[in-house]
Amino acid sequence: MTEHSRPSRRGVLFGGAVIGAGALATACTSNEEKDPAPVAQTGAGGGDNDKPGKAVTIGFSAPAADHGWIGAIAKNAQATAKQYSDVTFKPVEPTNDINQQISAVESLISAKVNVLVLLPNDGEQLNQVARKATDAGIPVVNLDRIFPDKLSYRTWIGGDNYGMGVAAGHYVGKKLKEKGVAKPVIVEIQGIATLPLTQDRSKGFADALKTYGFTVTAKQDAKFTVESGNQVASNLLQAHKKIDALWNHDDDQGVGVLAAIKQAGRKEFFMVGGAGSANAMREIKAGGLLEATVTYSPTMAGSAIKVARLLAQGRGMGDLVELQVPQSITLASETITKENVDRYLPLGFES
């Protein structure tokens, strides 16, 4: 999740020229006969991966859509699956209960789907059932929250959590340096503190700030919910009478964070968000406290469906030289500001 890169991550994965195409021909400067023109190499897909192939069934499981990012994950997965006549999309009931998700995944294994796209509520707790799927010969595309055992998945695809923190840290650090703030009060509102993705975000933020000689003054997790975001922000605002910068990990919980800030009437600091929601982008465009957000787009679910389809059909990525789909795909985190927000708005999700 944002758990919670576009323009366009899809383009990064599936568009553009062939990577590693044959070497350029060397110009002939003698009277010798010219060498034959080199033949460009293509991936196992032979070019266009979107051309119909073997009919496959893709199983899909994700947490319940209790906020915008997760809801957009399911919508992106379903919308991408519908683009292919050779894909049968088989989602199970989304749930935030670990045991229910395990049972749902087991039902997909029993149904003998060709490939499974799985965004676990918790990677560690769902690791065993993912391993059960791979042991049954069903490739698993691990989306976002990663399984600790690499034998539990064929390919992982997700955002760059550490990179999110780095991007946010550089935006904050650079702006504070330009303003000449010597000892800034920097506040950080995390998502779920126990998740590795949250820890990666915090580490990236701290590492980037360190390059400017800054550190985080206070941080607290807000569980990725609007309500918790509102409460945590209220607590931090009361605890710190002056703040210079605030980074909120998740734009969904950011709805509550912004509401708390406005209610408190605080205007002395600037804020950076995370994920790239449409409402956050509208706030950025309007000007005000929220100046930027760093992307972690749910369009990754659509890319996961594309990857799963290729795995089930035994194809590689047409734009790559290699014959197999990569083992991991990390999507870039981009910084959205007032200067470039119009380019990103079409990719935003509603909180």
UniProtKB/TrEMBL annotation:
Residues 30-54 are annotated as: Disordered. GO terms for cellular component: cell envelope. Belongs to the bacterial solute-binding protein 2 family. Residues 58-315 form the Periplasmic binding protein domain. PROSITE patterns: PROKAR_LIPOPROTEIN (PS51257), TAT (PS51318). Gene3D superfamilies: 3.40.50.2300. Keywords: Signal. PANTHER family: D-ALLOSE-BINDING PERIPLASMIC PROTEIN-RELATED. SUPFAM superfamilies: Periplasmic binding protein-like I (SSF53822). GO terms for molecular function: carbohydrate binding. It holds the Pfam family Peripla_BP_4. CDD domains: PBP1_ABC_sugar_binding-like. This is Substrate-binding domain-containing protein. It comes from the Bacteria. It is found in: Cell envelope. InterPro entries: Peripla_BP_I, SBP_2_dom, TAT_signal.
